Amino acid sequence: MADIARVTLGLTRPGPSNAPKIIFVAKDLDVLEWNGDLVAVGVREKDVEKDEAGHFKNPLLYQLNEALGGLLAEASSEEDFSGKSAQSLVLRVSGLRFKRVGLFGLGQSASSAAAFVGLGEAIAAAAQASRAASLALSLAFSEDLSAESKPGIASAIALGIVNGIFDDNRYKSNPKMTLLQSVDVLGLGFGPNMEKKLKYAEYVSSGVVFGKELVNSPANILTPGEFAGEVLKIAEEYNDVLSAKIFKEDRMIELKMGSYLGVTAAATANPAHFIHLCYKPPCGPVLTKLGLVGKGITFDSGGYNLKTGPNSNIETMKKDMGGAAAIFGAAKAIAELKPPGVEIHFVVPACENMISATGMRPSDIVTASNGKTIEVNNTDAEGRLCLADALFYTCNLGVEKIIDLATLTGACIMALGPSVAGAFTPNEELAKEVIDAAERSGEKIWRLPMEESYWEFMKSGVADMINTGPGQGGAITGALFLKQFVADNVQWMHLDIAGPVWNARKSIATGFGVSTLVEWVLKNAS
What we know:
alpha/beta
């Protein structure tokens, strides 16, 4: 059925992945001795200050400027380059071993992973624009950094470079391949720890790229069945640590997943697939069991509560599986890193939310696998219906902690804007773990309250609960709904990633969530 649906909807098949294959190497080499296309230097505002004679006070910038006969200082003055965040200055040069030199602003200070990831993305844009195949990376203030911080900083910049350079062109008729092949890290040290952190960035960025490709794929390509197929490919590629189970409707009925089945059983030509991927370490005992649950709606029409009007964003609803993409992107990275002592269950109820004469109607009542009944007062709040059964299933696997990721509510975007995810948890320890992981990864998460009094808005006159409350506090009531399906002995966090999963300006996926999840898993590993 899924194959027939795909063939009749455009005859499109994706081309090969354009995932970057960049080699990162840390070298003990003077910048002026480096031979290649682009030297990229990260600078703070104070690094570009000049003395009375117009010379840079910063030793590295002074050295570069002298080699260029004063051109760097002259150009920075003419173009009013002051090192502010997101500013850049790129010059074509001659007489040196490299073709271009670029200064990239970090603002007044540079201390967060997010700033260094952003620096990498800015450098990538310049490398792409100049068609650079090789790049040298340096920081004007490397002498001010501790030796312990340098590998992590290099890793964050490397992650930003891969994120920035990646161009998902699988659906273009004349795709251009990525030219950047090598990045040499200069002045930040070298050795086993640096090599390990650069390799870490390679693995995580590979997971981010995979997550982006999943979200970018249109619904006529990435049906629930095709989604399950992609996960099976990962399980096969890393079969030393990953295994997968795919449940179809008959098994869902056996498991009494009535909430999930209500969304998908009768309303679409592309049947649902319940995906359970499991990571087990290659050796040693399992000390901790974790669950990662992702919303996997491959297209959300809204159902009978159809998304209509200019602000409905129905044309972007292929992104409604962004939570699922994040956990499987993390799974790919984790399978490369192979953390010891931790078992991880990645669970996704994949399906479409479509309209049909036999589909779910407003006022229908569904029964979840934990026995609780739900009056569906809005068919466009389908993600939480699917997650209800997925959360209950994951709790029964014996996990100690669960994070679910979902593009759950527009209310969270209204509250936090497009770049910040909302975090909900009743557990202080888990809140600290995840927020710290997000800070280390450069992703933005803000904790919002679990206001229990709002549960009064979610009570039904004829069932145990309704699936949406009033307009106010919608992100909170969505989280309170999910909490009804989590066991009391399991630490749980809900991440509403409706905003940051998608770059509206470029109309592409961001890969949000992958980096934070990997950091969190590694912190929980022995």
